[in-house]
Amino acid sequence: MPGTPQQKAAQSQDRPKWVPLREDQHAELTALARELMLARSRKGERITENSIIRVAVDLLLRHPEFLGGDTEDELRTTVLRRVEELLERERHLLAGRLANEDPGEAQ
Fold first, then answer.
1. What end-to-end distance do the CA atoms of the chain give, in Å?
2. Surface-to-core class of residue 7, CB atoms within 10 Å of its CB (0-12 exposed, 13-18 middle, 19+ buried)
3. Is the predicted pLDDT of residue 2 greater than 60, yes or no?
4. What is the DSSP code (8-state) at residue 4?
5. How far are the Cα atoms of 3, 12, 91 from residue 57, in angstroms, in the given order?
6. In the 3-class helix/strand/coil scheme, how is 32-75 assigned residue by residue?
7. How many contiguous H segments (helices) and E segments (strands) does the chain have?
8. Which residue from 46, 24, 45 is spatially nearest to 34, judged by alpha carbons?
């Protein structure tokens, strides 16, 4: 249930889209939404499975270059590989920065 009038107005403009999920997707999505709800620092707006789906859609619409392929499996493989590459690059850069820090700076 939306809280503020702005949230109510925004949700009233949402267009429903029914998407079938595999059983594993549904279970993990439910668990993730529950974990995010419990980890919130502010207890206002609820985080639901639909919240996570909308965020994922926004990510892919903003970065369509992450997608490539002719089938759902190829699209999934491409986007997951690209995200893993970016995360690995970030870990590598962070590790390099930490290794180059002066031990006295960390205090």
1. 45
2. middle
3. no
4. S
5. 23, 18, 25
6. HHHHHHHHCCCCCCCCCHHHHHHHHHHHHHHCHHHCCCCCHHHH
7. 4, 0
8. 46
Structure tokens at 19: 């998407």
Do residues 52 and 36 touch, judged by C-beta distance below 8 A?
Answer: yes
pTM attached to this predicted model:
0.74
Is 99's pLDDT higher than 60? Answer: yes
- pLDDT number for residue 105: 56
Compute the distance between CA of residue 36 and CA of residue 48 in angstroms, rounded to an integer: 9
76-82 mean pLDDT: 97
Q: How far apart are CA 73 and CA 18, in angstroms?
A: 20
Tell me how many degrees the CA angle 25-83-68 measures, rounded to the nearest 5.
85
